Amino acid sequence: MNKRFVTSLLLGSSLALAACSRNAPEELPPEPTPTPTSPTTGTPTPTGPAVGSQAHFENAVNGQNVIYFDTDQYDIDSEDSAALRTQAGYLNQYPNITVTVEGHTDERGTREYNLALGERRANAAKNFLVSLGIPESRIRTVSYGKERPVALGSNESAWAQNRRAVTVVVN
Amino acid sequence: MTFKNLLYTIGCIGALVATPAFSQTETPTPAPTQERSGGLSGSVTDESAWEDIGIAIPGFATDNNVPTPANAEGTAALGVALAEVITADLKNNGLFKPVGPNRLPQPRFASIASPVWSNWTSRGAEMLVHGYVTKRDDGRLTVGCYLYDIALQDQLVREGWVVQPSEWRRAAHKCADLIYSRLTGESPFFDSKIAYIAETGPKGDRTKRLAIMDSDGANHRFITNGRSTALTPRYSPDYSQLLYLSYVDGNPRIYVYDIGTGKQRLVVENKNPTLAPRWSPDGEHILFSMAVAGNTDIYRVPATGGRVTRLTDTPGIDIGGSYSPDGSQIVFESDRSGSQQVYVMDADGSNQRRLTFFGGRAATPEWSPRGDQIAFTHITGNFRIGVMNPQGRNLRHLTNGWQDEAPTWAPNGRILQFFRTERNSGDTSLWQVDLTGDNLRRLPTPVDASDPAWGPILP
User: Fold this and answer.
1) CA of A154: which chain B residue's CA is closest?
2) Do B377 and A112 touch (CB under 8 A)?
3) Tens digit of each residue's pLDDT (9 = 90 or more) over B121-167
4) Would the N or C end of chain A have less CB density within 10 A of its end CB?
5) Domain co-membership, B309 together with B415
6) Which residues, other chains included, contact A101 with Cβ-Cβ below 8 Å and sequence gap of 6+?
7) pTM of the predicted model, to two decimals?
8) Number of domains within chain A
9) Does B340 contact A112 at a Cβ distance shorter than 8 Å?
10) Both B269 and B126 in a single domain?
11) Which residues from A are below 8 Å from B291, CB to CB?
12) A29 found inside a domain
């Protein structure tokens, strides 16, 4: 759920600015339904996330909607290609779904170059998906350069998490 | 345009001579700029010569204390404010040893063109600034500025300007520029503006707004509201337009924003991301970088729109670009060799060759308005601001932060600004440093700040 929240923030602030409504909701949201105290007991309800939602996609690809890159690199390694094959499988299964591939970099680069590098990474992922038969028209790319880190530290581990291409379902 | 309201030396000294109050008591002698053009030092790199010069800057006098929109307390208080702006300009930039109006006697209007020397000879200052401000019948202000050598008891230079009340600070900056230029032999820089990106919010979700301000931080104004990310602004040479990157339609694209009308248009009408906008020195052309199928190259388009010319064509990232002052060459950034390095080409894209062989990476080159230096971001672990000559030699580092990035030149090519990012917090701020590496200081901004772009001297 967290992941989805973050993703929708990204989408909300970049793509659907109108969604950043300034109006407060007229009514408070309903109280959350009580969650089972012991999730292991009882059968889980089969109502998962809806097809076409980011959560459904992430569940289906088992979190492999993000691929990672080495410093200054944009090549698709074997781990990336496995993730992208999984994504392509999903996209083949749901041919009406379109996606945006977001390219990101770590903070240790200059701003403009990083925008170009993020674009390169997004396109590398897109091209791989296209090579697997996904129509180009279903894949948009956007680079955020170093502007939207997901890990907030200034260390190798954080930078490795931020050098990424994220596939996001567009509805 | 606003700056058309500012009249110039010849017209203004005419106005000065015609001022009745002056004709009663003084006959201003012709400005001695021609015969005394030497200055005290020809170069900022001669550090010792002029930086210790004491300059007394008492309040500017007025003939008649009358209300003006420029100051709620009238022209007398405005005269003190003018002297304070001049003092702050010089002091904040580490230039000379100015002493401001609150520590000095206030000269009378009649003595502006003929100082009472006995008031000044024992104060330890070598130089004396006098000035006046008067309100004209049309509501505009006449501001006169005089620089005297106390030991010689002689006038070194004077100039006058007619300004709208809303632009009174510009007259002070012009006076500071006059003092600076006369004493150092350098070109002026105070009467100029800066565009930058104002940043707020947490590191992972920063709000980035386009903002502008005068060179001293005054007259600050946000241009965009922050609902979409704005980056990398550049003022047009005549200050009428701004180029900047915006995600307003969800994609990174360069817009040409007209400051007068508030309207903007895409720099080029197509679906590709556009990045890294730059003006040609004459304002006739715009350089931008465009990613096509993931590959970024540099393009040029007339500022009014029209045919796009591709200048680079390599599989690597070619991005940015900064014209030599004469417009004949462009220094830019490319990773065609495997890592970011600085290259130079002729303005038509021919004769591309690499300039930087310093180790590490070299990025964001900016050609000095004087033409003699290229500033850039040198990445060797940390990010430092470096300068080199246009042949790619004589590297000098000017800063030593964890991440100092994206230098921009003062109009006179003697000072640089850049932005500094703090490790972990991601806090950003604007900094300034002399070409000598001296006088490093943080610029005051209302919120965090990045991507400074210093415009040219106002006419």
Assistant:
1) B424
2) no
3) 989 899 999 999 999 999 999 999 999 999 999 999 999 999 999 99
4) N
5) yes
6) A122, A123, A125, A126, A129, A139, A140, A141, A142, A165, A166, A167, A168
7) 0.86
8) 1
9) no
10) no
11) 116, 119-120, 123, 143
12) no
